[in-house]
């Protein structure tokens, strides 16, 4: 059997999680993210019809067409994906909601929508395919472009960037991660962890635009990101509590139990970093960013860290049949 024809526990092959053939530029980081989503959903044995994928406008927002062809999907209005997803969530709590957006969609026109989805801990996996550029309209700087980064035409960006990761942490998001489209080994466990998380799980994925942002002087080229990204944590495995047998010296790992009962074993790669301490995580991230490093991995997770037996569920919100936390406390009142 070809590996893509192996069936998972719900009887689907990896090919069943694919969608239409991508029309993006060859080499676009977004296609690697679609491949990682396919892999994560296949590995987690999620039936495609249990998934709803929503997006806004932009190259990134075209991608839900390229994965999980048999799932539900809605390509919404520019920057308004979180509102439409919130509405869908109210109508049917039993789906896994995958929101896919871009930096233009979420950091410019949809910044308010992004902020409130994070603040309200809307039940979703929120992926921003972040390249710092408006690819669809031919390469203008987006709101996440670094100050001093150079465009393909040689223009230097004078504006400060919106840091979605920092913003999400500040707004109280319960799961905040950053990854790189060139690192599938990091992306797949992060997406799986995000799916297991109850509430809003945000992953900012740096995804270079090969057409408009892959030249010297750009801080979002493949070369630059490869050179400057540094993982603060690594998810060693995700399993049920019973399957964890490894014993690792205290201080080196953080175990966090997710709402669906899976346990993330986070291996800390920075000794002074604690992904369960919001303020410490933010200051660590800012300090490293000032040194020009782009930190990746699971940057913050709300939970009891440390000893596995001390790990606890952190939210009293009711879970739906996929184990995801319910939308928000107010939602119950609308029933
Ligand atoms: Fe990807 Fe850039 Fe092409 Fe858009 S323009 S598909 S972001 S490489």
Strand portion = 15-25%
The low-pLDDT segments are: 240-251, 304-335
Give the helices and strands as they follow along the chain: HEHEHEHHEEEHEHEHEEEEHEH
- Structural class from helices and strands? alpha/beta
Report the principal-axis shape.
globular
Helix content: 25-40%
Pfam family, one: TPP_enzyme_C
Protein name: 2-oxoacid:ferredoxin oxidoreductase subunit beta
Keywords: Oxidoreductase
InterPro entries: 2-oxoacid:Fd_oxidoreductase, THDP-binding, TPP_enzyme_TPP-bd
Q: Would you write up a description of this structure?
A:
The protein has 335 residues and is an alpha/beta fold. It folds into 2 domains: 3-19 and 28-229, Rossmann fold, CATH 3.40.50; 234-313, no CATH class. It has helices at 29-43, 59-62, 81-91, 103-109, 111-119, 164-170, 184-196, 222-228, 278-290, 329-333, and strands spanning 51-55, 72-75, 96-102, 124-130, 133-134, 140-141, 175-180, 200-206, 229-231, 233-240, 253-257, 262-268, 294-301. The strands form 3 sheets. The protein has an 8-stranded mixed beta sheet, with helices on both faces. The chain has a 3-stranded antiparallel beta sheet with strand order 10-12-11, with helices on one face. The protein is globular, with a radius of gyration of 19 Å. The site of iron/sulfur cluster has 11 residues, from loops.
Short description:
The protein is α/β, with parallel strands linked by helices. The protein has helices at 29-43, 59-62, 81-91, 103-109, 111-119, 164-170, 184-196, 222-228, 278-290, 329-333; strands at residues 51-55, 72-75, 96-102, 124-130, 133-134, 140-141, 175-180, 200-206, 229-231, 233-240, 253-257, 262-268, 294-301.
């Amino acid at each position: 059997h070809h590996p893509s024809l192996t069936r998972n526990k719900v009887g689907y092959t990896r090919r069943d999680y694919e969608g239409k053939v991508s029309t993006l530029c060859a080499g676009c980081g977004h296609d690697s993210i679609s491949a990682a989503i396919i892999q994560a959903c296949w590995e987690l044995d999620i039936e495609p019809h249990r998934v709803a994928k929503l997006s806004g406008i932009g190259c990134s927002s075209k991608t839900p067409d390229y994965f999980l062809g048999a799932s539900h999907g809605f390509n919404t209005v520019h920057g308004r994906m979180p509102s439409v997803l919130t509405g869908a969530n109210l109508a049917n709590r039993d789906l896994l909601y995958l929101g896919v957006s871009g930096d233009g969609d979420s950091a410019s026109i949809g910044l308010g929508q992004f902020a409130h989805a994070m603040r309200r801990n809307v039940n979703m996996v929120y992926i921003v395919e972040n390249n710092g550029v408006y690819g669809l309209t031919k390469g203008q700087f987006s709101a996440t472009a670094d100050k001093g980064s150079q465009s393909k035409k040689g223009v230097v960006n004078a504006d400060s960037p919106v840091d979605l990761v920092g913003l999400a942490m500040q707004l109280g998001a319960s799961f905040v991660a950053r990854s790189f489209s060139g690192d599938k080994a990091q992306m797949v466990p992060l997406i799986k962890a995000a799916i297991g998380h109850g509430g809003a799980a945000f992953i900012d994925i740096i995804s270079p635009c090969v057409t408009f942002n892959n030249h010297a002087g750009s801080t979002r080229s493949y070369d630059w990101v490869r050179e400057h990204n540094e993982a603060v944590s690594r998810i060693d495995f995700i399993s049920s509590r019973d399957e964890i047998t490894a014993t690792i010296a205290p201080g080196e790992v953080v175990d966090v139990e997710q709402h669906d009962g899976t346990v993330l074993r986070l291996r800390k790669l920075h000794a002074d970093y604690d992904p369960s301490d919001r303020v410490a995580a933010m200051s660590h991230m800012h300090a490293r960013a000032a040194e020009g490093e782009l930190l990746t991995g699971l940057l913050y997770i709300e939970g009891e860290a440390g000893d596995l037996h001390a790990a606890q569920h952190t939210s009293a919100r009711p879970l739906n049949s996929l184990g995801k936390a319910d939308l928000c406390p107010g939602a119950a009142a609308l029933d």
